Structure formats: C-alpha cells, structure tokens
Amino acid sequence: QAADLSTLIQVNPRVPESSIPDPNDQPEWEERKLALFLQGHAKGTVKGYSHAWRLWGLFCFLRAHSIWLVGESFVQRRADEDKLLDFVAHLSLNLRRAANTVKNLLLGVRYFHVAHGYDDPLIGKRRLQILRRALKRRSRVHRKWPVTVSMLRWIRKQLDLTKADDAVLWMALQLGFFFLLRITLRVLNRLLQPFY
Question: pLDDT by residue (tens digit) across 121-168?
Fold first, then answer.
C-alpha cells in the first residue's frame, strides 16, 4: 500500500518537516540536490569548480549564449565546440591562464553539466583536445627554485645593517621569506600598476 507523505511523517517523527521538499518550489529542491551532489568532493575542488562555472556563465552571458552545451546535430555540436574553443582562447590569451588552469576550468564546466543531468560536453571535441595540447606545449613553466636559509645567510653577510637601505632590504627579505610565501604577495605585477 502506498502511504502518503503525512503518514510517513507521523510514522517517523525523526524526519523534520523542513527537510521534506515542497513540490511547488522546484528551484530550491534542485539547489539542494546540487549542494548534496557537491559534497562528494573536497572543499577546494568544489570551490574551483564553482569558480569555473561562474567564469563560464559570465563568458556565455556576455556573448548571449546558453550556458548548456547540449547540441544534438553535427552543426549544434560543432557550435558547442566553437564556444569551448573561444572560452579556452579567452582564458589563455586574454586572462593569461596556464594550461593546467584552463584544464581545471574546463573540468568545472563539465562537472556542472553532468551534475545537472546533461552529457559530458568535453567528449568527442577533438579540436578542443588539440588546442589544450598546444597550450600545454606553449606554457612550459620554468622551474622556480626555492630560497634557502643558506642563501639568506650569504645575503646577510653582504649587507651593512648600519646603513638604512641595507637594513630595510634585510627586513623585507626576512618578511618575504618567513611570511609572504608567494611571489605575488611581495612583488607588484606590471598588469596591476595602473590601479595603484
């Protein structure tokens, strides 16, 4: 026998009434399902995927495209691929994102498509794979070597701390070494100079 919802609540009082979806509020229910779906990943992954989805949404909004890549015919699938190619080119050329960052942003777009019940939009996109390979070759990162304590000792021996310039330099080096671990936190980026 099929029991209605009110009977289930009476039988199991541990089920809070607030947790039962209102059939008239479909967007809230979909949002709650998506939140549950996102709990299957680490917080950092969810944050990255959410950022990717916001970028993709903004990219599509500014170009008056749909955010969903659901083309069924050959022409529609090719148009979807062109959107992804434009997105990757924008990320790489305009925003200067590295190949791995672009890859992670595409994975975020794919994740939200799958989470909403659509097919994986990256499958079968050969031109996209070729472009990603080209970006990987193009953005070979030159290895940055860490600063060591022995380097700091050598620098310290070269400085005369009775001079104000040397004392300030030594203090800045120590601050950078012990607290500001990323280069972008201590060095002004040329792209940001007009804003200062």
Answer: 999 999 999 999 998 888 766 667 788 889 999 999 999 999 999 999
What one-character DSSP code corresponds to residue 139?
Answer: T
Q: Which has the higher per-residue pLDDT, 9 or 117?
A: 117
116 and 124 in contact (C-beta within 8 Å)?
no
Nearest-CA neighbor of 55 among 100, 107, 126, 129? 107
HSE (side-chain half, CA atoms, 13 Å) at 117: 3
Measure the CA–CA gap between 187 and 144, rounded to whole angstroms.
15
| Dist. CA 116–CA 162, nearest whole Å | 65
Handedness of CA 45, 50, 55, 59 (dihedral sign): positive
- The whole-model pTM stands at 0.60
CA 77 to each of CA 62, 70, 83, 122, 127: distance values in angstroms, whole numbers, following the listed order: 21, 7, 10, 10, 12
The identity of residue 149, as a single letter, is: V
Give me the amino acid identity at 21: P
3-state secondary structure string across 70-100: CCCCHHHHHHHHHHHHHHHHHHHHHCCCCHH
Q: CA angle, corner 29, sides to 26 and 34, nearest 5?
A: 125
Structure-token pair, residue 111? 């994740």
Q: Would you say the C-alpha torsion 58, 63, 64, 70 has a positive or negative sign?
A: negative
